[in-house]
Amino acid sequence: MDSFSEVFNLVKERCKTMMSDTAYTCWIKPIQPIELNEDTVYLYVPNSFQKSLLERQYDAKLKDCFKEVLGFDVNIVIQTEGDTPQKPKQPAAPAASTPAAEPAKPEQKAAESASVKKEGNEENLRGDFNDGNYDYTFETFIVGPSNDFTYAACKAVAQNTDNSYNPLFIHGPSGLGKTHLLCAIRHEILKNHPNTKIIYTNCETFTNEMISSIGNKTKMDQFHNKYRTADVLLIDDIQFLAGKESTQEEFFHTFNELHQAGKQIVLTSDRPPKDIATLSARLQSRFESGLITDVSLPNFETRLAIIKRKAELLNITIPNDVAEYIANKLRNNIRQLEGVVKKIKAYKLLTGSNPSIGVAQNAIKEILNDNQPVPVTVERIVEEVSKTYSVSPDDIRSYKKTANISIARQIAIYVIREITQMSQEAIGAEFNGRNHATIAYTIKKMEEILEKDPKTKAVVNDIIKNIRNNG
């Protein structure tokens, strides 16, 4: 197998995590790689029907997958037998039964639909966004001190061993495995109970579906039936309910109906319920009525294990010194660790070079510009704001109400929340023990100011930029 064929296998692996099994089998699996010529990828498909569908529906997704594997944008040229100037090295004649060879006939579609229902709810397995991540299971999740309790809670929910974890609310920064755990719950349940109706989506999709149903009774009934008849409801990024009063109202009733019927609800967020700005008190109360658990930054040993596991899955050996270098440079995001391993694999396939620290440095450069950001402290943020407004850090933390001190204090609190994702209680403790309600009010007030005052917004953006660029 040549190097581009191996690269394309990585691309297909990534595609498989972004769509249903049916879509992958019909449209992506039959593609054959021809060659990579500079920044143009040449692919071969059996017929013009499949070529047309891929160009129309899957071009952007394929480009995204190639970029993730190769690290740069590509153009894609799809060719068929009739117009291929370069034939695949080993063209495979499409089998008569290959679904992509021709449009399915109505009776075939009916049979496929029946087959799907018999084998287990494909709609549920696929989920409602990103078409599911099929490599996100409990077996592929690396457990460490930063996530072991949350992992155990998710397994208990998936195995239905503790109904008291309802709802299960998982919070933590982006890229630390919350989506992986949601997918793992779904996979585990469907593996053992394939007829379970699982709705797996994100807050944005829920909102958009609700909005598109307003004013149309039939669509609204369909919307209600979809969500309120679920056996398990899994929703990612529930923090985006903030500021959406109508969506909160709709979700409140959906939540109540499911919860009262004893159906399992699992939610993820980048912050705990009490820190979701403008979340209604009754929703906060319901989110807090079950189990709240968090995922935090993985320690060095866990990061190293993640790198080793990903390398094993990609069938590549990464020397210990290289893996340790990556683990030391990328501390804040599991997806970044996995992405670097994929880039190292692609680099080896394309150049034949074995993984080295130099190769790892190049792979990391796109993510970090080869410099690990210095963790931003509250002191650093307060210092930057104090310089901007010519007031002392002590004044910013004080209870003084002079206009320039008050605005500096409000901006400092807002920027701390934006950059560090600290809880409102923790931020309050940094400001002479102010309570979380005061901090929440300040953040909300600053959000309103920034919406209406472009000058203040520009100042705040400059402060954030200076802090992130200079640490």
Features:
471 residues, alpha/beta, GMP Synthetase, Chain A, domain 3, Rossmann fold, Helicase, Ruva Protein, domain 3, 5-stranded parallel sheet, 3-stranded mixed sheet, 21 helices, 56% helix, globular, DNA-binding
Descriptive account of the structure:
- It is a single chain.
- This protein is α/β, with parallel strands linked by helices and 471 residues long.
- It folds into four domains: 3-117, GMP Synthetase, Chain A, domain 3 (2-Layer Sandwich); 124-294, Rossmann fold (3-Layer(aba) Sandwich), CATH 3.40.50; 303-368, Helicase, Ruva Protein, domain 3 (Orthogonal Bundle), CATH 1.10.8; 378-470, Chromosomal Replication Initiator Protein Dnaa, Chain: A (Orthogonal Bundle).
- The chain contains 21 helices and eight strands.
- It has helices at 3-16, 21-28, 48-70, 106-119, 122-126, 148-158, 178-192, 203-213, 217-228, 245-260, 281-287, 300-313, 320-329, 334-351, 357-368, 378-389, 393-397, 403-420, 424-430, 436-452, 454-470; strands at residues 32-37, 40-44, 75-79, 168-171, 198-202, 232-236, 264-269, 291-294.
- Strands 5-6-7-4-8 form a five-stranded parallel sheet, sandwiched between helices.
- Helix 10 links the parallel strand 6 (232-236) and strand 7 (264-269).
- The two termini are 46 Å apart.
- Its main location: cytoplasm.
- Residues 377-446 form the Chromosomal replication initiator DnaA C-terminal domain.
- Residues 104-129 have a biased composition (Basic and acidic residues).
- This is Chromosomal replication initiator protein DnaA.
